[in-house]
Structures are given as structure tokens and as C-alpha cells.
Amino acid sequence: MLTHALALAGGLTLLVGAAHFLVRGASSLALRLGLSPLVVGLTVVAFGTSAPELVVSVQAALAGAGGIAVGNVVGSNIANIGLILGAAALVRPFLTDASVLRRDLPVLLAATGLGVGILFDRTVGRAEGAVLVVALGAYLAWSVHEARRQSLDRRSEAAEPPATPAGSAWRDAVYVVLGLAGLVVGADLFLSGAVGLAEAAGVPNAVIGLTVVALGTSLPELATSIVAAVRGESEIAVGNVVGSNLFNVLGILGVAALVRPIVAPGLQTVDLLVMTAFAAVLLPMMWSGRRLVRLEAALLAAGYVGYVGFLALAHS
Fold first, then answer.
1. For 3-44, what is each residue's pLDDT tens digit?
2. Residue 156 burial (CB < 10 Å; 0-12/13-18/19+)?
3. Which CATH superfamily is domain 41-155+202-314 in?
4. Annotated domain spans of the chain
5. d(CA 192, CA 185)
């Protein structure tokens, strides 16, 4: 018990420290590259914090455990919106960039619909995995192209050139790398401690997999989004969640299926419906005044708690 508790505390400490490095380095790099913090959050930060989900799902696919591979993606996407974005906005309500409403959230809804459609028969073949990966690549190319164009437009309209961050670009890159590495290691420590404590407390394995494992692989997103909210980097907080969910459903599910076709007979329709509902409700919430306020954040968090409670009762 003591070993698990120490792993839990050590992992949490490492997650918070690594998130500070990542947010600081990523926001500085965004300025140097002429990109908005939102785009960096949607790409570098989102993909880096999704590394645990990628490792878990690919390993599960290789082991023939399709249920874990798919459940990890579905559960993480639910946790990202319900718990992580909700917790970040509870810490500090934030404004939403207009491009998120016009481009990224509609793409997330479309990607979620595509993923649910593919998972309807509880299988993901290699051809379907390739479609998902190609869709992710197309979105990334379009997103970066649009961001660069908008950045050039803003520079041409600005009376003064944008400020350059202090220090070197190498330092910022090191911060990003150290932050990403720390998040992966910290999440692994926290996850091992949490699973150990849950097993010692007699929590059923099915509930551990659907909640602790999915939440554990989402811990990098949680730490990064909360730290970004505290620092006032709302674009990174939002971009991290939206980008991570896109990467999960298109990249991770697609790569896992390319490695080995997935069969997930244990996946329930209610899980797919909940994932879709969280993605769908996010657009009208953020559209109202382009702001996610504490009441809306509390509703998201309460929805996640209700879902976890439903899982606990269903598997008790």
C-alpha cells in the first residue's frame, strides 16, 4: 500500500512540474514560429500528451486485446472533455478562439461521428484504420496552413512587429521535450499507484480498466490543461483537449488498427453515445459568448462523474 501511495504522489508531482515546462516552452515556440498557441496546443502539445494512450492502445492491439485498445480511446475522449476541460474551466473560465468554433470543434464532431460509424460493428480493419490516419493527416495539413495564413495576415495589419520571447529557441525546445517526457513518466507512475491502490481496495478489474486506466492515460492532458488555465494560456488548454481527442479517435485508433485489426465485442453502445454527446455539447457551450464559464464546466464534470458512477453500478 505504501509503495502504491508513494508512486501516486511522485507521479502527481512529476506531472505538475512537467506540465509547467511544456506549457512555457510551447507558448514561446508558438511565438517564434509565427503560430498561435492554439495551433501548438492542437498539434505538439496534444500529440505529446496523447503518448500514453498511443502506447496502451498499440500494445493492446498487438496482444489481441481489442476491447482495451478501443476502450482506452473512448474513455479518454470522455474524460478529456468531461473531467479535464471541465476542471480547467473551473480553475479559470476562459475565452474560446473563433477558429476553434469555425474549424476545430466541427472537425472533432465529424471525426467522432466517423469513429462511431466505424466502431458500430465493434471491429476496425486495416483499411478503416488507414482512412482514419489519412483523415488526421489532412486535418493537420489544413490546420497548420490556415494558421500560417492567419498569422501572416495579422503581421501585415500590425503597426509593430510581434515581440520575440526572451532566451533561445533551443531552450524552449528543451522545455517541450522535458515536459513531454516528464508527463509520460509521471502518468505511468501515477497510473501504477492508482491501479495498485484500487486492486488493494477490491475494486473490480472491469471498473479499473474503464475508469482508472482511461483516466490515467489522460493525466498528461489534465495536468497540462490545468496549468495552462492557471497561467492564462486558455488557447493551449482548449487546443490540448480538442487536439488530443482528434488524435485519439483518428490517429491512435487508426494506428492500432493498422498494427493489427481490432475486434472489441465488449464495447457498449452507451459508451459510444456518451463520447458523442460530450463532443456535441461542447460546441453550443463554447458558442455562447465564446466563453466556457464555471457553471458549464461544472455540468461537464458532473456528467463525467455520472458516467463513471453508471459504469461502477453496471459492473458491480
1. 887 887 787 677 667 767 776 777 777 777 766 777 777 777
2. exposed
3. NCX, central ion-binding region (1.20.1420.30)
4. 41-155+202-314
5. 11
